[in-house]
Amino acid sequence: MSFYLLPVGLTYLGDGISANRFDGVNLMKTLGGKKVMFVGDSLTTNQYVSFLCLLHAAVPNATFSFSSDNRSLSAVTFEDYNVTVMYYKSHYLVDIVNENIGRVLKLDSVQIGGSIWLTADVLVFNTWRWWLSSGSRQEWDYMQDGGQTVKDMNRTVAFSRALATWANWVDSSINSSTTRVFFQGISPDHYRGTEWGEKGSTCEGETEPSSPSAYYGGPIPQEAIVKQQLSNMSKPVYLFDITYLSQLRKDAHPSRYNGVNFRNDCTHWCVGGLPDTWNLLLYAALVHSI
C-alpha cells in the first residue's frame, strides 16, 4: 500500500495508540533530535500554530527559540528536547520563477522548495486553496508545464499536474526509513448555507456543528485527485482525511472575529479548535511510525 488513510472515525492506529488524546510530553520524547516541517498555505499555518500551542501547553517551562528568514521559512526549536517545528510557505508546492515574461508557475518543478524540504525528518504538505486565486491575489502571470507556457488553464488540471510533480519528487528524493511524509487533505469553507440547509447564510453566527444527517454539501472533487495521486506513489505517504469532519464544523471559523478588518472569514479555522483535531491524527501517526 502506497499511502495510509487516517479516516474521520479513527480511534486507534495500531498497537493500542489512541488518536483521542494528544500527549505532548510523549511526542517531544518521540521526536527528540528531529525536525518537523509544515509546507503549504495559511491553512497549513492553522495546523502549524495549533501544533506549536499543543506542544507548548504540554511543556510550558521548556526553553525555546524562534528564527525566521522573513520570507518563506520560520522555525521554533524546543531546546530542552532538541525538537524543531518549522513552517515553509508554499501556496502551490511547485516553483514560481521570475522570468522576462513575468512570474511563471512551473508545474513540473519543485527545485526551490525541494532542497529545503529535505532538511526535515517529518514533512506535512498541503495545497489547493490558492489554485482558485485570481486578480491581485494570483501570484503568477503564466503557467508552464514542460515546453508549454500558457496564460491560464483549468485550475483543477493545473493542481493535478503540480501534485504529480510533488509526488514524483517524494518518490525520487525521500528516504522512507528516515523521513515521514504526510498530506493534509482538502480543507472546506462554509460560505454556502445550502450545504447545511440554511439558504443565504454563511458561517457567521454559527455556534454548533452540523449533524451528518443534515449536511448536504457532498465531497469536494479535489479530494479524489489527492487520493488517486497518493495511491499511485511508491513511497508511503499518510493522508489526513480531514475533509468530511471539517465540512461538519461550520461553527469553527473566525468569521468576523479574526481581528483583520472584521471580514467574514469562513475559510480559516480558530486556533485552538478544529486544527487541534487534525493534530490528534498527526500525533497518532507520528507515535505509531517513528
From TrEMBL:
Homology family: Belongs to the PC-esterase family. TBL subfamily.
Instruction: Tell me where on the tree of life, at the top rank, the source sits.
Output: Eukaryota
Source organism of this protein record? Musa troglodytarum (fe'i banana)
The transmembrane segments are: none
What sections of the sequence does the record tag as coiled-coil? none
Q: What is this protein called?
A: Galactosyltransferase
Q: Where is the Trichome birefringence-like C-terminal domain?
A: 21-284
Report a single Gene Ontology molecular function. Answer: O-acetyltransferase activity
Keywords assigned? Glycosyltransferase, Transferase
Cross-referenced PANTHER family, in alphabetical order? OS01G0217000 PROTEIN, PROTEIN TRICHOME BIREFRINGENCE-LIKE 9-RELATED
Q: Which Pfam families match?
A: PC-Esterase (PF13839)
Example of a GO cellular component annotation carried by this entry: Golgi apparatus
